[in-house]
Design brief:
This protein is an alpha+beta fold and 560 residues long. It has 3 domains: 300 residues, Orthogonal Bundle (ADP-ribosylglycohydrolase fold); 80 residues, no CATH class; 147 residues. It is built from 21 helices and 15 strands. The strands form 5 sheets. The chain has a 5-stranded mixed sheet with strand order 7-6-5-9-10, covered by helices on one side. α12 packs antiparallel against α13. The longest helix has 28 residues. The chain starts with a helix and ends in a 12-residue tail after the last helix.
Length: 560
């Protein structure tokens, strides 16, 4: 937790006066312009520190882990330090007599969550506490996900997991892009919106970043930036410097990066902690020290064996007939088991190699409306007690009964098969009879994996349904207003609103092949018509060839 506080104080002078110089003086004021006049921005603790310490106070005072008690502590400390930089919406929450969570995907929940990872006895406990601390004020899925991701990163760092392991978890458990070009990331953090370059109304495939005048504080951008600063740094200080130099919401990004780096590097250097102490009130300093003592006592009572070891899960990438296994080099037990089962000639890569490989495997020309080669299918398998297990056979106290999991799998297979039918009928309705995976520029289309079905509109995620790897039960991930579409000034509807099998199938048909459902009216172009326009604009040679020899066209319709 000290790392979060130090990062906040170090980054605070640069929140409204961003710098790209990683070699700035620590905990020193900096000159800049504010509302037309030049002023000095001084180091200080902000709302990041106040709320982080509020969570710490709650953890020390409430053994029952009651959400109502958490709200009381957060409001009490927030009101005491109301001028520490709270956003207007959250300030209203602090002062409210009836505080209710808002649908925000801001980083407020992620920035304060690090104390839970310092006291949680297990990763599931850390994730559960993170979710609780988030949902008292943030209920947007991205806001909650940001808090969970930060808690997991800090927990893994504290328990000796490698940077490769943490990168793997952030990328594949939470879907964060940690390989975005740095200049793009910096532009997004500065509040820019990525816009396509048009010539005569046609997209050129190139983009520019339009300034909005407002820095970005979303979890979608700031959490991966903090993780990236940690992964790139070689010490606590270097991590925080990198985070500040990214710009944007610099104090929060540095606070989150510092929260991960401190336990990974064995604490905050004495030089830096001494610099930061002078900016804290006596109350905050005492509270922080009390929590640090509690954390140390817990560590002494339950010693942590530092070892680079992932949880029991690993990944298999499948594209066509090829399978690639993802396993850290130190997991000799897993590697030996894989070779024993599949032969010495199998291809095994490190987790750090996986993101680049997936990009390479998925990189296709999107001028057309389909991908000739399906996207790589990535599946999570577990190696537990010397045995390979699927998610549904993972042992655990809270695992649902087998009959319930079997029913969920049957339901998913029904949805899976139905989505394949819809995909085929949509392809045929547009004149394409190949085996490729469709990718329409403006229309809704299904992407079918072995364990989930996704719906996309162009490059915008619109929702998915699949089997939860932790429970084996059916799980919906809503699209709609969640995700990156807001940065493109474009929105989609939420495709899935119910876990009912009939509702899910109806939604897939309605959005991806709506003329087969009969919901179209005179004021709305059907999805099939939109997809046909994409086909007509296509520059894909392979698609053109398929259209010249279309075979037998079929009337689109949904098979019930």
């Amino acid at each position: 937790m000290l790392g979060a506080v130090a990062g906040d104080i170090i980054g605070s002078p640069y929140e409204w006066n961003n710098t790209q110089d990683r070699y700035f003086e620590l905990c020193r004021g900096t000159r800049g312009w504010f509302r037309g006049r030049e002023i000095t921005f001084h180091p200080k603790f902000t709302d990041d520190t106040v709320m982080t310490l509020a969570v710490a106070r709650w953890l020390m005072s409430d053994g029952d882990r009651n959400a109502s008690r958490l709200i009381q502590v957060m409001q009490s400390m927030g009101r005491e330090y109301i001028d520490s930089g709270f956003a207007p919406m959250f300030k209203r929450w602090i002062l409210s007599e009836d505080p209710r969570p808002n649908n925000s995907y801001g980083n407020g929940a992620a920035m304060r969550v690090s104390p839970v990872a310092m006291v949680a006895g297990s990763l599931p406990e850390a994730i559960a506490l993170a979710r609780m601390t988030a949902e008292v004020s943030h209920i947007h899925p991205e806001g909650v996900k940001g808090a969970e991701a930060m808690a997991q990163a800090v927990w893994m760092a504290r328990h000796g997991r490698s940077k490769d392991d943490i990168r793997f978890a952030m990328t594949h458990d939470f879907g964060y892009d940690l390989d975005m070009p740095e200049n793009e990331m910096v532009s997004l953090l500065a509040g820019c919106v990525k816009e396509p370059i048009l010539i005569n109304g046609e997209e050129t495939g190139e983009f520019y970043f339009r300034e909005t005048g407002k820095i970005d504080s979303s979890c979608q951008n700031t959490v991966p930036a903090a993780v990236r600063a940690f992964l790139s740094g070689d010490s606590f200080e270097d991590t925080v410097r990198r985070a500040v130099a990214y710009g944007g919401d610099s104090d929060t990004i540095a606070s989150m990066a510092g929260a991960i780096a401190a336990p990974f590097y064995g604490g905050v250097p004495e030089k830096i902690s001494g610099m930061c102490d002078v900016y804290l009130t006596a109350e905050l300093r005492s509270l922080m020290q009390s929590f640090e003592n509690v954390s140390l006592e817990r560590r002494a009572a339950h010693p942590i064996k530092v070892e680079h070891r992932r949880d029991d899960s690993f990944k298999i990438i499948r594209t066509g007939n090829e399978k690639i296994y993802v396993a850290p080099s130190y997991r000799t037990d897993l590697i030996d088991a894989l070779k024993a089962r599949f032969g010495d000639g199998i291809r095994i890569i490190k987790p750090s190699q996986m993101p680049q490989l997936l990009v390479y495997m998925s990189l296709q020309d999107k001028n057309g409306t389909y991908l000739e080669n399906p996207r790589p299918d990535v599946r999570t398998i577990y190696f537990q007690d010397g045995e390979f297990r699927t998610s549904a056979t993972m042992t655990g106290e809270n695992l649902p009964p087998k009959e319930v999991r079997d029913e969920s799998r049957r339901d998913f297979l029904e949805i899976h098969d139905y989505a394949l039918q819809v995909r085929s009928q949509l392809q045929q309705a547009c004149g394409y009879f190949g085996d490729g995976s469709i990718h329409f520029a403006n229309a809704y289309f299904p992407v079918v994996f072995s364990e989930r079905v996704e719906v996309w509109k162009g490059d915008i995620f619109a929702g998915s349904v699949g089997l939860d790897p932790s429970t084996g039960l059916l799980k919906i991930n809503q699209g709609g207003d969640f995700g990156p579409m807001e940065w493109f000034n474009e929105r989609t509807d939420s495709v899935f609103n119910s876990v009912s099998i009939d509702s899910i199938k109806e939604s897939i048909g309605r959005y991806c092949l709506d003329e087969g459902i009969g919901i179209c009216d005179a004021n709305r172009t059907s999805n099939v018509e939109t997809a046909n326009k994409d086909v007509a604009r296509s520059k894909d040679v392979r698609l053109t060839e398929s259209l010249e020899n279309p075979g037998t066209r079929q009337t689109p319709g949904i098979k019930r």
